[in-house]
Amino acid sequence: MIGHSKNSKREHMTRQRNVCKGHKESINVIIAIVLLSFVLSSCAGVMINSEARYTYEQGLALFNQGRFAEAIPCFEKALSLEPDFYQAHLYLGRSHLNLRNYGKAIPPLRSAYRLSPNDFKREVADLLVDALLGAAFSELKDGDIQTSLSYIREILSTDPKSKKIKDDLSRVLVAVATELLKSGKVRDAVKEYTEAVKANPDNTGAYIGLAKALLKSGDFLKALEAAEKAISLDPDSKEALGIIKDFLKK
Hints:
elongated; Serine Threonine Protein Phosphatase 5, Tetratricopeptide repeat
């Protein structure tokens, strides 16, 4: 009986130690989860001033209703309270973009790109490129070629992957190069037409423009090559055929 009592006591003490050990491990797990949640929340930008968050959510509701002009002051107020509020920068830029205020969309989208988590950078970059393209076309219409080119250079620095963006970029480069050629800046025109071809190798207009610019620069052989490429893309192109005829006259 005494031996049995001692064994029972030892078993009871062992169970107690195991229970305590289990409680300790559970507490450690809970602490780890809480710490991890705090870190993730901080990274995700959850630790935002409550007034800034409330104002942002008001703006987001307006944005989702298509009331972009009304949403803008909300996002601006949120940013005045929290300058590094990524989502507020993003939706401020998107609001201006939807209103085709391209120049105003660029600064907040630049900030959104800088502050965005790595998983979302490509999406934000595409929005920024849309704004830059719009601004480049807008400045070109106003006759400001240099500002248009500065926006184009920024687009190229983002290394766009989307075919649509590359096609749009090629079109705006052709437009810029055409204006440069009209103003007698032949060398600059050749450079921009070449960039247009790189952006979209199937852009017939880019090859035609390049051929014209090269012809004016006196580089007849390369002009002929560009015209031939244009014809290979569009056999009925009168412009390309006209360039070849001009070449044969020289």
